[in-house]
Amino acid sequence: MVLEPKDMDWIDKGVLGIEWNDGHKGVYPVRYLRQHCPCAACTDEWTGQLRIKPDDMPLLIMLQDVEPVGRYALRFKWSDGHDTGIYSFNFLRRMCQCGVCQPVKPEQPKTRRLL
User: Fold this and answer.
1) Which one of 19, 39, 53, 68 counts the least CB within 10 Å of its CB?
2) Residue numbers of the chain with a pLDDT score lower than 50
3) How many C-beta neighbours within 10 Å does residue 11 have?
């Protein structure tokens, strides 16, 4: 089965929801999406490392428009004027921030002091 979004809606202020054709309901904070833009200006093409730092991004970033790119990706237009990132459906699915995809792990103690 080819992965495709079925529907998109706002879950909360600044949080985009994407329902996928496999039934998964993805959760995408828009600032997180912008911080992980896959374009060559934001992400190193060879290493995959982010070129932008979280502090370089405005705290308030808004998604102004979403355009389909063929039948494999979406392009987002951001309030900071950036619009060159093409987010493939597979990339977006891996970026999901829901509790199933990004479970909260119990915090491990930092030290093990012996009495």
Assistant:
1) 53
2) 115
3) 15
This prediction's pTM:
0.83
Give the three-state DSSP class for 89: helix
Question: What is the rounded CA–CA span in Å between residue 53 and residue 39?
Answer: 14
User: Can you point out the beta strands (E) in 3-115?
Assistant: 5-12, 15-20, 25-29, 63-69, 73-78, 86-88
Residue 29 and residue 13 in contact, taking contact as beta carbons nearer than 8 Å = no
User: How would you label 96-113 residue by residue, b for 16+ Cβ within 10 Å and e otherwise?
Assistant: beeeeeeeeeeeeeeeee
Q: Which one of 3.90.226.10, 3.40.50.1970, 3.30.2020.30, 3.40.309.10 gives the CATH number of domain 5-94? A: 3.30.2020.30
